Input
Amino acid sequence: MDKIKMKVPLVEMDGDEMTRIIWKLIKDILLEPYIDLKTEYYDLGLEYRDKTNDQVTVDSANAIKKYGVGVKCATITPNADRVKEYNLKQMWKSPNGTIRAILDGTVFRAPLIVSSIKPFVSTWVKPITIARHAYGDVYRDVEYRVEGAGKAELVFTAENGEVTKHTIHNFDGAGVLLGMHNLDKSIESFARACFNYALDVKQDLWFATKDTISKKYDHTFKDIFQDIYDKEYKSKFEAANIEYFYTLIDDAVARVIRSEGGYVWACKNYDGDVMSDMVATAFGSLAMMTSVLVSPEGYYEFEAAHGTVQRHYYQHLKGQETSTNSMATLFAWTGALKKRGEMDGIKELVDFADKLEKASLLTIEEGVMTKDLAQLSEVKNKKVVNTEQFLKEINDRLVKLL
Ligand code: NAP
Ligand code: MG
Output
């Protein structure tokens, strides 16, 4: 078989620790034997980020704006421990935060469902897709540590010089402060991305905030969604026989647990961060959660929803065998290749990515899986494999499908 040719490069963003190991294995075993892989490579591994003063992260996001599609490996978000471990110049910001701030948009996270693994929530029979707003709030905040008594104020200076002040709190001792923001423009594109996605997959859209407590901030989100829905989407939703449903975030959580799934759940940035981990874990494993950022201009960044699996990496460094699940990282690649194929009109690339996804799901359904899934699966005659074996088992099935 001739290798599949690509026209436009995919923006490839390498990462850290165990996922960096998996990244290379996926390319070696499942991609490069079949595709003349054309990528523009950015090394987002922490060492190189530090070396370039994080410029490489900014460059990679701009490359996505240039080419349209990127695929990203999990990366370390440094904390104090990491600054020491990697001897960093400074505690660099979260690469995901930086990239999302440049691209804007919404992150859609959906679980990969296999018949052999039952969700912890027994009523969930259909996937729940979390749509996470990827701009602002606590991820772009300004924080201040109050060391003693004093008055904290919220001050806004308009372009014309007019000043508005609100007292936040009169401190009589130490405490903490946080200032955060969002933009109507970003919320509007979040809303449209969610309405479009729901129409695409023909599923209801749920949205929830805490507008009863946050009467300006969260209420703005609620109002913008409702306004855009009424003006632009109501009739389309009715024609598709799907619903837009708004409720309070605590009510939403209760309803989600009692539901049977099968809808898109739009969440503000922080809610989406937390809820996607909960939903992913309840569906089985963080390693079975796919994630794609869709920008308002129609740029795509595919990634895994989990982190760099640090514990497994340290085992790997000690020469011990690992059994790390590569499904989410693999689906980041297939999602990106498929999107590239669709955009460039390369049908073979789309077909290949489809078959690779099928082969990987089939591998698990036939009982071949990594440790994380083996603990959950009800299949008899399970075969627990190591990180590399799992990819080779997928390849065996891929060869047959091709
Ligand atoms: P993590 O990498 O998501 O892993 C947490 C635990 O979940 C693992 O220890 C493992 O459990 C299990 N797990 C996650 N992915 C797995 C996989 N593919 N296969 C098998 N098990 C898996 O989170 P972390 O260890 O707390 O964070 C490590 C680093 O990742 C941090 O530096 C953080 O900044 C970064 N991070 C990056 C991203 C991103 O780039 N998108 C997202 C989150 C975190 P067991 O150890 O019990 O086997
Ligand atoms: Mg998270």
